[in-house]
User: Which sequence fits this backbone?
């Protein structure tokens, strides 16, 4: 029987929190009107809405080396079985573990690279992953890089053919963000936002550079005592960061509010958004904050912030430089005219990442 729609299978560990997970959510919701969408998850953990069908491989990621290796083997067998059953026209994998799996399980998958690989993975595991990139990525039918820097790194460092690589930025549903940003926040947080709030968002892990942000915020407090820092997100470093805040004497002014299903009202009520990352791909949180009309202060990490902000749409500071990060935050909080100017420019820049235009780029991949 001939299909009415082409079938696309997205492979990702979960749909639970995270930037890549949000991208799959948005793409599946919009693409499902014209394509048959199947989302294969390592583990059925879901916090985002989705379009199409979800199938769980029931093999969660594990930090244990031996259990992880066993689960990877089972996952590979189950994915091959699923692909044989579903017979998708295209397989799109997102994230390092999913990319390796899809390259082993099927021919010519589309692998989406959302991390600057040369800087984003360190130590023994990083060396193994870079070796796998050299060995397996040439088997990809198409490589979708989320930034120009990532595309150039794949060519220069891993000698992948440029003609196989396509840059498609992460999409932003601006109307949806605008609508959600108008929803009320819990009453317990209302008083907090009577203060000038510096806000950051993302998983509490080393990559996000939160320990440098906390040190910078301690310097901000010396200049603007009424300032508050709000961090949205969960992760393995929460207790470490809370302890650091206590050591710095700023614990009462740093608020870890956990993961929020709708973060946009929190963004909308804040005075400045800060990205303190050590490395990135193309950070969704930056685009979402810009769509909410916030002035942006970001580290100039590889990759994404400079590609998004340039010299016009926000403030870039060196990675791991707490004094300059604090100085930029203080300037935005003190100079309302400057803050309003870069906020307006940031919101205009967010229009370049509208989901409607980027969906068409994905459709061309599936021709």
Assistant:
């Amino acid at each position: 029987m001939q299909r009415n729609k082409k079938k696309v299978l997205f492979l990702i560990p979960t749909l639970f929190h995270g930037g890549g997970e949000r991208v799959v959510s948005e793409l599946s919701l919009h693409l499902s009107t014209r394509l048959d969408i199947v989302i294969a998850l390592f583990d059925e953990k879901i916090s985002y809405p989705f379009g199409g069908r979800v199938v769980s491989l029931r093999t969660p990621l594990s930090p244990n080396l031996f259990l992880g290796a066993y689960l990877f083997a089972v996952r590979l067998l189950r994915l091959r079985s699923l692909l044989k059953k579903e017979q998708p026209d295209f397989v799109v994998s997102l994230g390092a573990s999913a990319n390796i799996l899809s390259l082993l399980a099927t021919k010519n998958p589309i692998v989406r690279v959302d991390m600057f690989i040369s800087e984003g993975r360190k130590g023994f595991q990083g060396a193994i992953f870079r070796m796998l990139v050299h060995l397996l990525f040439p088997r990809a039918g198409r490589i979708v890089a989320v930034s120009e820097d990532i595309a150039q790194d794949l060519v220069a460092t891993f000698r992948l053919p440029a003609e196989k690589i396509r840059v498609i930025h992460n999409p932003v549903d601006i109307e949806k963000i605008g609508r959600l940003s108008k929803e009320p926040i819990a009453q317990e947080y209302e008083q907090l936002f009577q203060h000038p709030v510096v806000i950051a968002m993302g998983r509490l892990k080393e990559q996000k550079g939160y320990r440098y942000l906390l040190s910078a915020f301690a310097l901000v407090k010396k200049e603007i005592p009424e300032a508050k820092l709000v961090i949205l997100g969960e992760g393995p470093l929460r207790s470490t960061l809370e302890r650091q805040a206590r050591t710095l004497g700023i614990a009462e002014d740093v608020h870890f509010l956990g993961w929020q299903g709708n973060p946009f009202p929190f963004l909308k009520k804040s005075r400045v958004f800060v990205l303190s990352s050590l490395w990135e791909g193309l950070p969704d949180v930056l685009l979402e904050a810009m769509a909410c009309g916030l002035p942006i202060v970001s580290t100039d990490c590889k990759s994404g912030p400079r590609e998004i902000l340039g010299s016009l749409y926000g403030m870039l500071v060196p990675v791991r430089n707490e004094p300059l990060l604090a100085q930029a935050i203080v300037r935005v909080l003190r100079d309302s005219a400057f803050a309003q100017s870069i906020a307006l420019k940031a919101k205009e820049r967010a229009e370049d990442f509208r989901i409607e235009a980027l969906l068409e780029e994905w459709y061309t991949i599936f021709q």
Q: What stands out?
A: The domain at 174-353 is CATH 3.40.50.2000 (Rossmann fold). The two ends are 20 Å apart (CA to CA). The chain has two domains: 7-168, 174-353. The longest strand covers residues 7-12.
